[in-house]
Specification:
The complex is a heterodimer. By secondary structure, chain A is mostly helical. Chain A contains nine helices and no strands. Chain A has one domain. The longest helix of chain B is centred in the middle third of the chain and has 36 residues. Classes of the chains: A mainly alpha, B mainly alpha. Chains A and B meet through helix 7 of A and helix 23 of B.
Chain lengths: 243, 656
């Protein structure tokens, strides 16, 4: 019966209607499972981020995370589809997967930035720090989820991403890596937002997205300027600007 | 009231005119014309609304006034009228003032834009009903005034003075945020019309009252918070200092009236507190003024004095409110309201006058002026009218409002027996003393500036017709309110009936026989004019004899041997020497053939120099102690942020 009704709708709606039939038994369950799977993938990407020493790998990870977030955002709309609900995932995909990585790659090419990220501590130490903080965050999230209505794994993953973003900024010297760290932090906030309330108001999300884009843009300009006045892309060189 | 909206639009349109046209002189003239037209249009809509309508509030059409964000009650309209009335002559003067700078090749566009924005936002402040709109306009008003003060920003004292102003107005705004948010929390509404008759809520009541009065008191410059006035006013361009002193500090008074209106009740201790602070402000404001040599600084201290007088009226009104006595409330608040109008008028007149003098002589120091009466007699008369009015002498407007406040004192003494007569007599003596000192101060500046001979050679002394026009408008109102006060008293009475006093049509103010006062004043003016013509007649008959003053037999008199402002005020300044921080450096000539002698006198502000600056100096020393945490690398700061967030999170986690 449901199937016949949905035939009269468009093709996309038909497919989604199929899904909803499948999911009618355990829609919530499937959504939860998918969310958790995606979050764990997200965490794995963070691990990769902490051991890699290539700048380009950072960009790839950012792209990957963008795709994960887009998929994560599409999920809640499977049951009740509307064209407006697609605006946010589409914008997210455009900004995070296409625009920003392309821009960062352009900066890397233009300024001829070296391929390594110049860590200030050993990679294994960095990984240990991240594992340690991730463990604490997961334990705390687990405790919190008992008293409040949050989904543990996305919540903790988002939280971890925020921490990793900050750690990347603290322990890396290169400015372009700082930009990447900032974006990871922002991704974490996004994931965090989806975990706390099932959907933040769409306008806020889009606002944040544009905000991030503008910030990255400005950082790009700043890096350009800095490289033309100071030879080097380290934040240590910025100390010389102090009066 | 839609007309008012269009008037505001016309005023703003003057910005577009000056910004879009290249030709400076013509653009400035057109923009000033447009602004004046807008203000006249505004006045022509707000004045009838205040005078003729019987309902306590009028409204925009619903399209322009969504969700009642504007309100037109009598109090707001009264202040709106004051703003527009004063802004018109200021704008007329501004045209001739800015022309000087255009001639010098300096761009005045930005300055004019700030001026317009300041006028418009000030008008919106008094009609705003939504608290957020009020705060936004208040902020715009403060910042544009700050930007206007920065006109000659290359000067050192302009930088410090404007910073004082900015810092102080931000403290006030900060307190106002807390004030309005607390009110919102109490009433669950953002509209000021809903804040009325707030429940008397224990300790929060006191907190709210203190917050409101402190924030608005800072803006209006009551005594402990007055230190920004003598810093900011002298360095501001004349149009801004006139508007600052005439209108913007009155916005603080407006706020105090509104605060009272929210509660519609004031405890007695608050009345005494306000009365005491105001008396101190008035007395020491005028005393500080007496010790100044800079004319604008002197006028700034006179603003403190007059705000004190307004505050005395408010304090009397508060006492009346505590005892629920109608006559006291009406006389106190009525005197305060009328003095607000009067002070706006004559202070603007004096500031514009001082601006004219500064423009011509290039100095603000009284000691190097002299003999200006021979340059322009009419200017002298106009300035003199302002001076007499501010001293509270008949037959001008300052007297009327002070007379009402004096009446308030005596009515309080009559109504509340007990020990009140004694306290009220002390207050009355204090106010009379203020008047006396003001007379001393203004005889000082008028005699030194206008009489005698020129101390410094004056190359040219030109006063344009625009300047005469703007001064004349203000002087006309000084005379009008002084000689024929009934209509103005009627307006004040109406404002009180519509906003403050619950009982209807109490006519304490109207019971005073204003007709007698009018007759006496007209007779006085007539006598002065008669004597003037008599003098003319005698001069015509017998001729005019000009000779040097008697110099004790000394022949070589020159321009330096005149009575100076310092010597005139010295005796009075000696009395509160430590409070005025009055220093004298005397090097008297010695020997039979004395070679050299010198004399200097200074007065610096007590609060400013002895309390504020040392406090900030020690604070900055304290902050320098943690300088070791300052790194050049941004990564350290991010680590600090992370640590802080972690600590907060742990605390928040453990709290549960």
């Amino acid at each position: 019966m449901v199937f016949i009704q949905s035939c009269s709708h468009s093709i996309i709606q038909l497919m989604i209607g199929n899904f909803s039939v499948l999911a009618s038994l355990g829609y919530k369950l499937i959504k939860n499972i998918m969310q958790n799977v995606l979050s764990i993938l997200f965490c794995l990407s963070l691990f990769y981020l902490s051991v890699t020493s290539r700048v380009k790998a950072y960009v790839t990870v950012l792209q990957f995370q963008g795709v994960l977030l887009t998929v994560l955002l599409v999920f809640p709309f499977i049951g009740h589809f509307s064209i407006y609900a697609l605006i946010l995932p589409a914008t997210l995909f455009f900004v995070k997967v296409i625009l920003i990585p392309k821009y960062i790659k352009k900066i890397i090419l233009d300024l001829d930035i070296k391929r390594t990220i110049e860590p200030t501590i050993q990679q294994i130490t960095f990984l240990l720090i991240i594992i340690f903080s991730m463990t604490i965050i997961f334990i705390i999230s687990n405790v919190l989820s008992k008293s409040t209505d949050i989904e543990t794994i996305p919540f903790a993953s988002g939280f971890t991403a925020i921490a990793v973003g900050i750690f990347v900024i603290i322990y890396r010297k290169k400015l372009i890596v700082h930009v990447a760290g900032f974006l990871v932090l922002e991704n974490g906030i996004f994931l965090f937002g989806t975990a706390v309330a099932s959907e933040l108001p769409m306008m806020i999300e889009i606002g944040v997205l544009l905000d991030v884009f503008v910030v990255v843009f400005l950082m790009g300009i700043a890096i350009n300027k800095i490289s033309s006045t100071l030879s080097g892309f380290d934040v240590t060189a910025l100390g010389r600007l102090k009066d | 009231m839609d007309l008012l909206f269009y008037a505001l639009v016309v005023q703003i349109a003057s910005i577009i005119v000056i910004a879009s046209v290249r030709n400076n002189h013509k653009a400035s003239a057109a923009a000033h014309l447009l602004l004046t037209a807008g203000l006249v249009l505004g006045l022509s809509s707000s004045f009838p609304a205040l005078v003729f309508s019987n309902s306590s509030s009028l409204n925009f059409s619903s399209l322009l006034n969504p969700a009642n964000i504007f309100r037109f009650d009598s109090l707001g309209l009264f202040f709106l009228n004051i703003i527009q009335l004063v802004a018109i002559p200021t704008t007329i003067y501004s045209h001739s003032y800015l022309r000087h700078y255009i001639d010098e090749g300096k761009s005045v566009t930005s300055n004019f834009i700030f001026f317009v924005l300041m006028i418009v936002s000030t008008q919106v402040v008094v009609i705003a009903n939504h608290a957020i709109l009020f705060l936004i306009c208040w902020e715009v008003m403060s910042t544009t005034a700050y930007l206007g003060i920065l006109f000659e920003k290359e000067k050192r004292d302009v930088q410090t003075g404007s910073f004082y102003y900015l810092a102080v107005s931000h403290v006030a705004v900060f307190l106002l945020y807390i004030f309005f948010f607390l009110l919102h929390q109490q009433t669950n509404s953002w509209l000021m019309s809903d804040f009325h008759n707030l429940q008397n809520t224990g300790s929060l009541f006191i907190l709210l009252y203190t917050l409101g009065l402190t924030a608005f008191g800072i803006k209006s410059g009551f005594m402990p918070f007055h230190f920004w006035l003598p810093r900011a006013h002298p360095i501001a361009p004349t149009i801004f200092s006139a508007f600052l002193s005439g209108i913007i500090i009155k916005m603080g008074i407006y706020g105090i009236f509104r605060t009272y209106q929210f509660f519609n009740y004031a405890p007695e201790w608050l009345g005494w507190l306000v009365l005491g602070i105001s008396l101190i402000s008035a007395i020491f404001g005028v005393w500080y003024a007496l010790a100044q040599h800079d004319i604008k600084r002197l006028l700034a201290y006179h603003s403190v004095e007059n705000i004190g007088i307004i505050g005395i009226g408010i304090g009397v009104g508060f006492i009346g409110s505590a005892y629920n006595s109608l006559p006291i409330q009406i006389l106190g608040f009525g005197g305060a309201l009328l003095h607000t109008l009067n002070h706006a008028i004559f202070k603007t007149l004096l500031f514009i006058g001082s601006g004219v003098i500064y423009q011509n002589l290039g100095t603000r120091n009284i000691e190097s002026m002299g003999g200006l009466v021979h340059r322009s007699r009419y200017f002298f008369i106009l300035f003199l009218i302002g001076s007499i009015a501010i001293s509270g002498l008949p037959p001008f407007n300052g007297f009327i409002s002070e007379f009402i406040i004096f009446n308030g004192f005596f009515t309080t003494a009559k109504e509340l027996k007990n020990y009140y007569p004694l306290l009220m007599i002390i207050s009355a003596v204090g106010l009379a003393f203020v008047g006396g000192l003001a007379v001393a101060c203004f005889t000082k500046i008028n005699s030194i500036m206008f009489l005698g001979t020129e101390r410094k050679e004056i190359k040219k002394f030109h006063i344009s017709n625009y300047e005469y026009l703007s001064l004349s408008i203000l002087a006309f109102f000084c005379v009008l309110i002084g000689v024929y006060p009934q209509p103005f008293i009627g307006i004040v009475n109406k404002v009180l009936n519509n906003g403050f006093v619950t009982a209807n049509h109490s006519s304490e103010l109207l019971n005073i026989n204003w007709l007698f006062i009018s007759i006496i004043f007209i007779a006085l003016l007539a006598a002065i004019i008669l004597i003037f013509f008599l003098k003319r007649l005698i001069q015509k008959k017998y001729g005019k004899r000009i000779s040097a003053p008697w110099g004790c037999g000394y022949e070589g008199l020159n321009y330096r041997m005149q009575y100076t402002a310092s010597s005139y005020a010295d005796e009075l300044n000696e009395i509160p020497k430590s409070i005025l921080v009055y220093h004298k450096k005397v090097q008297s000539p010695k020997g039979i053939f004395p070679a050299k002698g010198s004399f200097e006198s200074h007065s610096v502000d007590l609060i400013d120099s002895k309390i504020l600056l040392p406090a900030f100096r020690s604070m900055s020393k304290l902050i320098c102690r943690i300088k070791f945490l300052s790194y050049t690398d941004i990564r350290y700061y991010i680590a600090f942020i992370l640590i802080t967030i972690t600590i907060y999170s742990v605390i928040a986690f453990l709290w549960n």
